[in-house]
């Protein structure tokens, strides 16, 4: 039978015959991951299960990226639990300190993610790896403990929504705008329990960074996975990350889709998600004068080198407006070094930015950029729920890096084309 | 299990940052998490809750992060059941794994009002509104998940499978 991308990947990891959506199948796992917030609970469950060892020490990744560098004693104690567990189990891929990056930027860069993989992570943005054609989804800590112990877990085969992106991509528009436009169109529960599968000429032309940005926010539409076909571009990325033997994957012609959504990007303005839901999306030019106190550029959504370059292109020769805190967090040590070597930090520092270490930090209101009551932030992150970055009386607007940079300069949310 | 309690109604798209904000995620202790349940929705929300009360929510309850701390916080607050129009995917799975009973009732959610008293038969999926006398029956749990529940949750289920592998 004809399979969607999701069905095709799951089928390769199970002995059961996949006949369609709704079926529950057990799948062998390519990688299981957790972070400094979710791993301590997973360790607790793992021990309660009576597990003595992880299924494969090379297929577990523990990334301490959320509250690190440890923000307080309690978070330091949590990282200690993860560190000791990693040591006890002989986990190969443990990251903390100088080798840590934001997990969903770090693991693909290290070559740990491959096309056709089935990956579960105790982090909802695990779906990022769909950008490389991996079926990757977020689960809770106990499901991750089960995965670490058994090397498999159960999946309900999701129905798939096919999303085709057509038209001419305007300047300053990237993966972030495309995914925000989609979430604006279908809503935060528009893809609930479903997989998204992207295609079309704009997707073919989109960079790997842009694809990962889009896949990353599939969860913001309620999605289980956001999948991209594996093409030459994917294979080149995987090869550069040190992988060998990966192959192209595409959905079968004649696969069954629940729904087909088409978005034409011709003439599209940068998209901004207004408080307090990612579906409150409007073109930047329709917002009026929205004054900001802070701009954050970074995260698993938009902390990659292409994002740093986009921000630098806008900030070059300009300064953040008085009273605006501009915080830039390159997502991994490699991106950090690359940005430094390309001279981007000079541009950032001249613009009055704070350049911080790779960390999830402010995105989830952890640290390094918490908002006070009445404050407003434009951010390249993925969630603008009430209180997400601090006070319940603060506001978060989501945008691409060029818009966040232009807004920092203008002091109000601004289209970079109009700066 | 039969649960008797009062309903605390919340809106649509209640995210996990509302259920338990990230600043509380520096512990895995159910009691501390419970004391801060819904602190991101309304400070002090949990003070109105009595043991065995239930949360009644609109669509997409538990959207956002994968933090298992969310169902743990709800259980830690003494709430054994959440009834919703619909649930977000990761939260739904986490709830089952943690032993929090999640009942999906669709549009019948409008029959459940804030402050009403309920009797919930968690096994049969029957909800009786003791204040109005109305009854609501919810969507059946998939057989595989029912099996998980009967095993006592995911932890004992995996424990059993690990033991079987050794043999």
Radius of gyration of chain B: 16 Å
CATH topology of chain B: Aconitase, domain 4
Provide the gyration radius of chain A in Å.
Answer: 20 Å
Query: What fraction, in percent, of the residue positions of chain B are helical?
Result: 25-40%
Structural class of chain A: alpha/beta
Beta-strand fraction estimate of chain B? 15-25%
CATH superfamily of chain B: Aconitase, domain 4
Low-confidence stretches of chain B: none
- The tally of structural domains of chain B comes to 1
Offer a quick outline of the entry.
The complex is a heterodimer of chains A (419) and B (167). Chain A is of the alpha/beta class. Chain A is built from 14 helices and 18 strands.
Please, could you describe this protein's structure?
The complex is a heterodimer of chains A (419) and B (167). Chain A has 419 residues and is of the alpha/beta class. Chain A folds into two domains: 5-263, Aconitase, domain 3 (2-Layer Sandwich), CATH 3.30.499; 272-418, Aconitase, domain 3. Chain A is 30% helix and 19% strand. A five-stranded parallel sheet of chain A has the order 4-3-2-5-6. In chain A, helix 2 links the parallel strand 2 (31-35) and strand 3. In chain A, helix 6 (175-186) runs parallel beside helix 8. Chain A is globular, with a radius of gyration of 20 Å. The N and C termini of chain A lie far apart (53 Å). In chain A, 60% of the residues are buried. By secondary structure, chain B is an alpha/beta fold. Chain B has one domain (2-139): Aconitase, domain 4 (Alpha-Beta Barrel). Helices cover 29% and strands 19% of the residues of chain B. Chain B is built from six helices and seven strands. In chain B, strands 4-3-2-1-5-6-7 form a seven-stranded mixed sheet, covered by helices on one side. The model of chain B has no long low-confidence stretch (mean pLDDT 94). The chains are: A alpha/beta (419), B alpha/beta (167). Chains A and B meet through helix 2, helix 3 and helix 5 of A and helix 3, helix 4 and helix 6 of B.
């Amino acid at each position: 039978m004809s399979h969607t991308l999701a069905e095709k990947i799951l089928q390769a990891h199970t002995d059961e015959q996949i006949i369609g959506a709704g079926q529950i199948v057990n799948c062998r796992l390519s990688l299981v991951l957790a972070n400094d917030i979710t791993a301590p609970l997973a360790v607790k469950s793992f021990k309660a299960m009576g597990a003595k060892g992880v299924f494969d020490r090379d297929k577990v990744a523990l990334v301490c990226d959320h509250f690190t560098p440890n923000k307080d004693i309690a978070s330091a104690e949590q990282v200690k639990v993860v560190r000791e567990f990693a040591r006890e189990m002989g986990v190969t891929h443990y990251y903390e300190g100088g080798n840590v990056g934001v997990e969903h930027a770090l693991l693909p860069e290290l070559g740990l993610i491959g096309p056709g993989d089935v990956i579960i992570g105790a982090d909802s943005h695990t779906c990022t790896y769909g950008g490389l054609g991996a079926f990757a989804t977020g689960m809770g800590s106990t499901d991750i403990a089960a995965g670490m112990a058994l090397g498999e877990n159960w999946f309900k085969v999701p129905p798939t929504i096919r999303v085709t992106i057509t038209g001419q991509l305007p300047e300053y528009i990237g993966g972030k705008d495309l995914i925000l436009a989609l979430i604006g169109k279908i809503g935060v529960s528009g893809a609930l329990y479903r997989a998204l599968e992207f295609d079309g000429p704009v997707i073919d032309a989109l960079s790997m960074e842009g694809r990962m940005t889009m896949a990353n926010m599939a969860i913001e539409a309620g999605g289980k996975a956001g999948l991209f076909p594996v093409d030459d571009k994917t294979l080149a990325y995987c090869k550069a990350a040190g992988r060998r033997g990966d192959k192209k994957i595409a959905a079968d012609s004649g696969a069954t889709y629940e729904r087909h959504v088409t978005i034409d990007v011709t003439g599209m303005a940068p998209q901004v998600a207004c408080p307090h839901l990612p579906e409150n999306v409007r073109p930047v030019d329709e917002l009026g004068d929205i004054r900001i106190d802070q701009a954050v550029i970074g995260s698993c959504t938009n902390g990659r080198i292409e994002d740093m370059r986009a921000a630098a292109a806008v900030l070059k020769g300009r300064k953040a407006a008085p009273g605006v805190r501009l915080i830039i967090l390159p997502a991994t040590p490699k991106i950090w070094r690359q940005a430094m070597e390309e001279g981007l930090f000079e541009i950032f520092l001249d613009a009055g930015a704070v350049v911080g270490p790779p960390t999830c930090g402010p995105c989830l209101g952890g640290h390094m950029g918490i908002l006070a009551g009445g404050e407003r932030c434009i951010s390249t992150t993925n969630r603008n729920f009430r209180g997400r970055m601090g006070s319940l009386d603060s506001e978060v607007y989501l945008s691409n890096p060029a818009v966040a940079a232009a807004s920092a300069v203008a002091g109000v949310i601004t289209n970079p084309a109009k700066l | 299990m039969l649960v008797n309690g009062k309903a605390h109604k919340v809106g649509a798209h209640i995210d996990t940052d509302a259920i338990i904000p990230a600043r509380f995620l520096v512990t895995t202790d159910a009691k501390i998490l419970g004391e801060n349940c819904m602190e991101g929705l309304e400070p002090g929300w949990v003070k109105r809750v009595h043991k065995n009360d239930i949360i009644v929510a609109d669509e997409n309850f538990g959207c956002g992060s994968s933090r298992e701390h969310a169902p743990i916080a709800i259980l830690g607050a003494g709430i054994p059941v959440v009834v919703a129009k619909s649930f977000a995917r990761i939260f739904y799975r986490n709830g089952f794994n943690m032993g929090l009973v999640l009942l999906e009732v669709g549009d019948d959610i409008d029959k459940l009002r804030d402050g009403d008293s309920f009797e919930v038969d968690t096994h049969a999926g029957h909800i009786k509104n003791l204040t109005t006398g109305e009854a609501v029956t919810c969507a059946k749990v998939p057989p595989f998940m029912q099996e998980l529940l009967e095993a006592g949750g995911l932890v004992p289920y995996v424990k059993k499978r690990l033991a079987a592998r050794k043999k």
